[in-house]
Amino acid sequence: MRITRIDIEGPEGHYAKITRQRGSHWIVVTILTPCQPDGKELRIPADADESELRNQARNLHLAIGGCSDASSDINDYLRELQRFADLNEPKEMAMSKTDCQAPPPEHMLAVALRENLSPPAVALIAAKCQPRYGKGEAGLKAEGEVAWFTELLVGMIGREEYSRFCDELGV
The pTM is what? Predict the structure, then answer.
C-alpha cells in the first residue's frame, strides 16, 4: 500500500492537500485559504531531514489557522509529512548497509541538483538538453551522455511534472 494524498481541514475555509507522485522527489503541499482560494504550493524535498520537515510542519500549521505555540498540532502535521518523506534512507546515503560502498555518482549528482534547483529549473534544463547529432564516435558518445543526463533530470521530478512544467514554461 502507498499513500499518495492526504487532505487536511482546519478552521472553516482553511485546507491543505499533501501529495507525492510515484517517482517524484518532492512532497507537494497545497494550502487553500480564503485569502488564497487558488492555493499556495509548498515543495519539500522528499529526502528532507527531520528538522526541515518540522519547520515545514510549523509553516503548514500556521498557514491553515493554527496558533504558533501549539506543539502537539505541529507534531500531528509532522507525522503526516513523514508519511511522504524518504526518512528510511539517509539524505546523503553515505554508505550502503549491505556492502559498505559509496553511493553511485549519479545518485550524488541527483542529490546535489535537488538541493540547488527548483523543479521548474530541472524541467527547463532537461527540455534544453536535446542531443544535436554529433559527428563520429565521439559525437555518438556525447549524445548518449546527454540523453542519460536528460533522463536523470526527468526522473528526478517525474514525467507528469516534467510535462506540466514544460507546458507552463512554454518549452
Answer: 0.50
